[in-house]
Amino acid sequence: MQPDKKPRAGPQISSATFLEFVVEAVQYNLNNGGENAARRVLSLLTDAYSYRDDLSLAKRKADTLINQHLMKQQQQQRQQQQQDLSNMLLSMMAASQKLAAPQPNTQHPTPNTQHPTPNLSVSHICWSLKTLQAEEYKNGKPLFTQANHWQAVFRILVDQGMFRDNDYDGFDEWMRNNFPKELSTNYNKNSVKNISQTLYNKPLERWTYDPALEKTRQPFERMQTIAKRFQELLFLPDGLPAT
User: Fold this and answer.
1) In this model, does residue 206 exceed pLDDT 90?
2) How far, CA to CA in Å, does 18 sit from each of 12, 127, 161?
3) How large is the average pLDDT for residues 33-47?
4) What is the spatial distance between Cα 58 and Cα 5, in angstroms, rounded to a whole number?
5) Three-state secondary-structure class, residue 190
6) CB 110 within 8 A of CB 162
7) Quick one: CA dihedral 32, 36, 42, 46, positive or negative?
8) What is the per-residue DSSP string for 33-73?
9) Which one of 48, 58, 69, 241 has the fewest CB atoms closer than 10 angstroms to its CB?
């Protein structure tokens, strides 16, 4: 006697569901491929019973292919995640090394034509004053012409620590002993002392125009130009042509 065959597993979907699938397949092919495409679907379903064993094998193979495909996708995703993590760590390391590395000096170097500190030697101050007196202002007029312009000179020397704020006698003695008389014809000690009643009796960087003390801006701007230029000259090396 032949052994009894194992009962075939029943369908995994209901007849109603299968019928719905067939109707949808036919309708889809009618809409997209025409009558011939719909008839091919029916022919395939008709022949499917004859190849039910082959279809069962095909299903298992299809399941295997689907599982392999899913596993491959998961593996690729893990590899991509590992690569992203590796790239992120490399970027963090590079950023850390960049922060730890000595930063380049982005400040402009001091030009070779300028000293880091002013030259307060007698000869250099005299050279600076002679140069200042020879310079022109607006419309080709001399820059340094009035007695009160010596207030700007005194203020800059005070700012550089050469004299105290009210050391007018010391400045006067220095002028008489060191600066040529022919170049100091418009110098007047009393005019320099009058700086205490002006806005110039404070460091140059704090000078601001005050209408109560100066009726117009022109005298203030001229005095400011003299002070800034004299300060620049003090920082230049000896004998350097003034520009």
Assistant:
1) yes
2) 10, 110, 104
3) 69
4) 21
5) helix
6) no
7) negative
8) T-HHHHHHHHHHHHHHGGGHHHHHHHHHHHHHHHHHHHHHH
9) 241
- Compute CA distances 8 → 5, 12, 53, 57, 144, whole Å: 8, 12, 10, 14, 119
Distance CA 131, CA 237 (A): 13
User: What's this model's pTM, rounded to 2 decimal places?
Assistant: 0.52
Rounded Cα gap, residues 140 and 131, in angstroms? 15
The answer to whether 187 touches 144, Cβ cutoff 8 Å, is: no
Burial class of residue 126 in the structure, from the number of CB atoms within 10 Å of its CB (0-12 exposed, 13-18 middle, 19+ buried): middle
Average the pLDDT over each of 40-44, 60-64, 134-138, 232-236 and give the range with the smallest value: 40-44
Tokens at residue 132, please? 């200042």
CB 207 within 8 A of CB 221: no
**pLDDT of 82-134, one tens digit each?**
888 888 888 888 877 777 665 544 343 333 445 567 889 999 999 999 999 99
Using alpha carbons, list the distances in angstroms from residue 130 to 123, 134, 141, 189.
11, 6, 16, 19
Condensed to tens digits (0 to 9), the pLDDT of residues 230-242 reads: 999 999 876 554 5
